[in-house]
């Protein structure tokens, strides 16, 4: 479970699976689920949310661009009605909409209606999507498999 009101999830690279994301009431309205900070086109960082649920008491954006090359993908995630129609906020990256990667695929729920989303939201091909939703996105060097098993 992830709780928060403004940028619940910060920078770096992660794949989050089957997580419940819940916003909380805040003076900042609407809130933001993410603020990813990818620094350049060659930076491999980004956030991927797979099979998650987003809910909470007030309106929120899926994310805002913390840096010009921000990357956030929501995959087969249930989005309650709290998601604002635009979905995404460019924040301090105005003029860099073409290099920001904010995308959704296979999401459900009343907040998943993409008809009102920002026009610069990316529509990823199946091949592009596959490279991010596969665990190899964060495990390219095999470090996860090398970890000891927990009892």
TrEMBL record:
EC main group: hydrolase
Keywords noted in UniProt: Aspartyl esterase, Hydrolase
Top-level lineage group: Eukaryota
EC number: 3.1.1.11
Short name of any one Pfam family annotated for the protein: Pectinesterase
GO process terms (BP): cell wall modification; pectin catabolic process
Gene3D superfamilies named among the record's database cross-references: Single-stranded right-handed beta-helix, Pectin lyase-like
Pectinesterase catalytic domain span: 2-140
Pathway: Glycan metabolism; pectin degradation; 2-dehydro-3-deoxy-D-gluconate from pectin: step 1/5
GO molecular function: pectinesterase activity
InterPro entries: Pectin_lyas_fold (IPR012334), Pectin_lyase_fold/virulence (IPR011050), Pectinesterase_cat (IPR000070)
Keyword Hydrolase: yes
PANTHER family associated with the record: ACYL-COA THIOESTER HYDROLASE YBHC-RELATED, PECTINESTERASE
Family note: Belongs to the pectinesterase family.
Protein name: pectinesterase
Source lineage: Eukaryota, Viridiplantae, Streptophyta, Embryophyta, Tracheophyta
């Amino acid at each position: 479970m992830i709780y928060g009101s403004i940028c619940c999830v910060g920078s770096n690279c992660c794949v989050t699976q089957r997580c419940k994301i819940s916003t909380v009431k805040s003076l900042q309205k609407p809130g933001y689920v993410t603020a990813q900070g990818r620094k350049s086109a060659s930076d491999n960082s980004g956030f991927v949310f797979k099979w998650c649920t987003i809910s909470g008491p007030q309106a929120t954006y899926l994310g805002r661009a913390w840096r010009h090359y921000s990357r956030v993908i929501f995959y087969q995630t249930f989005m309650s009605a709290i998601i604002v129609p635009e979905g995404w906020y460019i924040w301090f990256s105005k003029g860099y909409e073409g290099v920001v990667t904010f995308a959704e695929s296979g999401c459900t729920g009343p907040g998943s209606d993409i008809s009102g989303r920002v026009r610069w939201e990316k529509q990823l091909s199946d091949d592009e999507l596959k490279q991010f939703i596969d665990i190899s996105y964060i495990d390219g060097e095999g470090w996860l498999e090398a970890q000891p098993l927990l009892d």
